[in-house]
Design brief:
Length: 389
């Protein structure tokens, strides 16, 4: 089966649910066990079958099976947000005295977790340049337990050479993780050396900006067991309705994603040619420094990209953003709607690699509106930018 077809079938077992096309929503905390013996038996394999709501229900198992299939991994663990997936995966492999290599372009809350929480627990983080490639070898230490990647990087969209990083990290005995939210469906992590792939399912999997959800897909049963134990120990289980929304979003993910990517390509090509724009950050553009790696490792793209403007005053940029009809100001992305956020100033924190944009920077999400309407919105925005003092 091709990927589009697999997405429709993944995790569905109508035969188990009276023929219902979609897996039912199980609202469960307590699970009744028929005998003490059965209760004791379930304690020996707490993560298999129904034991207690926090460990999973048939809704959880359906979502986990589906996401593991679409990412090409062994098995997945669902969590209550994308960030809980990141922290749950990290906490499964790090303890006091360990060392973590974290990409310098990590999603900001990931960085904050390293600096605020992991440091306090005695885990040392070294940030590395996203373009390090096989050079990561020089940063490996005997106690480096995890190498964390995110490609393209949050806000600045550098593409990482994942196979080269994974090879060097594995030689040093580390587990390699990726935040694969941008590459959902288009980057197959387990064919590129990744051990653990994280999705902020809140974004394209849910796809409608109406639920928080995360997943952690693992390459092997051993890795899965460690991750599941960590997530269960922290109690980071997702809600039943959220999981259902994730499963429902999955069925239309492929068509939505193609539309988001097609619109983003049109917008970015148009933006690149504008006199107000210094650079567009979108790996599918041949002018993007990450284009060759993207072309080698990805089968497609999505609707998220960055723009660096030529120098302009803050009031002018604010006037441009405030007046948009379609690009609304809001965090997150991957829903049906177009969004924009300013990313200048303190939003982009780097400690291991240079980031010196020529002017103010922005992040756009191309939604499912007609691309002509979005282009007109951008054009009127540049008019406001020019007219503001
Ligand atoms: C949004 C996001 C997350 C966090 O997901 P939440 O569900 O909002 O917690 C993690 N990584 C990336 C790249 C994201 O964009």
């Amino acid at each position: 089966m091709k990927k589009d077809t697999r997405l429709l079938h993944a995790g569905r077992h109508p035969e188990n649910f009276h023929g219902a096309v979609n897996p039912p929503v199980y609202h469960v905390s307590t699970v009744l066990h028929p005998s003490v013996a059965a209760m004791e038996k379930s304690g020996k394999t707490p993560f298999e079958g129904m034991r207690y709501g926090r460990f999973g229900t048939p809704t959880t198992f359906a979502l986990e099976e589906a996401v593991a299939e679409l990412e090409g991994g062994h098995r997945a663990v669902a969590t209550c947000s994308g960030l809980a997936a990141i922290t749950g995966a990290l906490m499964a492999f790090l303890k006091s005295g360990d060392h973590l290599l974290m990409v310098d372009t990590a999603y900001f809350p990931t960085r904050k977790f390293c600096d605020d929480v992991l440091r306090g627990l005695g885990v040392e983080t070294t940030y590395y340049d996203p373009r390090v490639g096989g050079g990561i070898k020089a940063l490996m230490r005997p106690n480096t337990k995890v190498v964390f990647t995110e490609s393209p990087g949050s806000l600045t969209f550098e593409v990482q050479d994942i196979p080269a990083i994974a090879e060097a990290a594995h030689a040093g005995g580390a587990v390699v993780m990726i935040d694969n939210t941008w590459g959902v469906l288009t980057f197959q992590p387990f064919t590129k050396g990744i051990d653990i792939s994280i999705q902020a399912a809140t974004k394209y999997i849910v796809g409608h900006a109406d639920a928080m959800l995360g997943t952690i897909t693992c390459a092997t049963p051993e890795l899965w067991h460690r991750v599941k134990s960590s997530v269960a120990a922290f109690g980071q289980s997702p809600g039943a309705e959220e999981m259902y929304l994730g499963l429902r979003g999955l069925r239309t993910l492929a068509v939505r994603l193609r539309q988001h990517a097609a619109t983003a390509l049109r917008l970015t090509q148009w933006l690149e040619a504008r006199p107000e724009v210094d650079r567009v950050l979108y790996p599918p553009l041949p002018s993007d420094p990450g284009h060759a790696l993207w072309k080698r490792d990805f089968s497609g793209a999505c609707g998220l990209f960055g723009v660096i403007l030529k120098p302009a005053s803050k009031p002018a940029v604010d006037a441009m953003l405030d007046g948009y009809d379609h690009f609304k100001l809001g965090f997150s992305w991957g829903g049906f709607e177009s969004l924009v956020i300013p990313t200048s100033g303190h939003s982009i924190i780097r400690t291991a690699s240079a980031w010196e944009p020529a002017g103010p920077s922005l992040r756009f999400h191309a939604g499912l509106e007609d691309a002509d309407d979005l282009l007109a919105d951008l054009e009127q925005g540049f008019e406001r930018l020019r007219q503001a003092v």
